Amino acid sequence: MRPLVICGAGGFGREVIEIVRAINAVAPTWDLLGVVDDGPGDVPRAHLERLGVAVLGPVASLSEVVHSASASVVIAIGDPATRARIAAAHDGCDWATLVHPDATVGHDVSLAAGVVIAAGARLSTNITVGEHVHIDQNVTVGHDSRLDAYSRLNPQACISGFVTVGEQVLVGANATVLQNLTVGAGAVVGAGAVVTREVAPGTTVKGVPAR
Ligand SMILES: CC(C)(COP(=O)(O)OP(=O)(O)OC[C@H]1O[C@@H](n2cnc3c(N)ncnc32)[C@H](O)[C@@H]1OP(=O)(O)O)[C@@H](O)C(=O)NCCC(=O)NCCS
């Protein structure tokens, strides 16, 4: 079993605990030492207690905690920019890549360090996924697509074939990006949007068609 620390104890952090448990149920892989988090508030702390997971310290202590335990770490914070900032501040950590056993990852799909793939996600073929990308529950990613570092696809997002999702993009729940399009770095696609044309970097689009 490899020691593992989760950075972030918010909603997604606790969902990642479930991903770790699901992986271990199939093949004992990770010894979850606990989470680092700058809160957590009373409610998340109570939820963690019910999950039997310890709080090891604040986020600033991440490098120290993981190095002293020779642990791998995964950043389970939804906001792309926050994830990028923490990864840069703790360069040199051994970033774990976690794939829920109920996700489907096809051939020639490369997953970089720190990627998290949740239950029900489907990645077909010839796909490149950059560092610390989060692919949440029931997302589909079509052939020949590229997801750049720190992006996040919320539940049920549908990325068609030949799509490029730039760095630190957030694609909202149930949004669809049509084929051959690029969503520029730092853009936000609102929940339920249908993206029918290129999305400029740093912009927010929403609605059907997305504007
Ligand atoms: C699009 C989004 C980024 C906009 O956030 P925001 O700038 O804070 O927007 P606001 O909440 O201030 O709303 C501004 C307007 O946009 C509308 N709006 C917000 N989100 C929308 C969406 N997804 N689709 C269509 N309209 C939306 C609001 O109704 C409001 O309209 P009004 O001005 O006529 O009242 C955000 O609402 C969103 O969809 N984020 C993704 C959330 C998600 O995926 N959640 C699932 C988590 S698991």
TrEMBL record:
InterPro entries xref list: AcTrfase_PglD-like, Hexapep, Hexapep_transf_CS, PglD_N, Trans_hexapeptide_repeat, Trimer_LpxA-like_sf
Catalytic residues, chain numbering: H143 (proton acceptor)
Pfam family, one: Hexapep
UniProt-listed SUPFAM superfamilies: Trimeric LpxA-like enzymes (SSF51161)
GO MF, any single term: transferase activity
Keywords carried by this UniProt record: Repeat, Transferase
Identification of the protein by name: PglD N-terminal domain-containing protein
Source species: Knoellia subterranea KCTC 19937
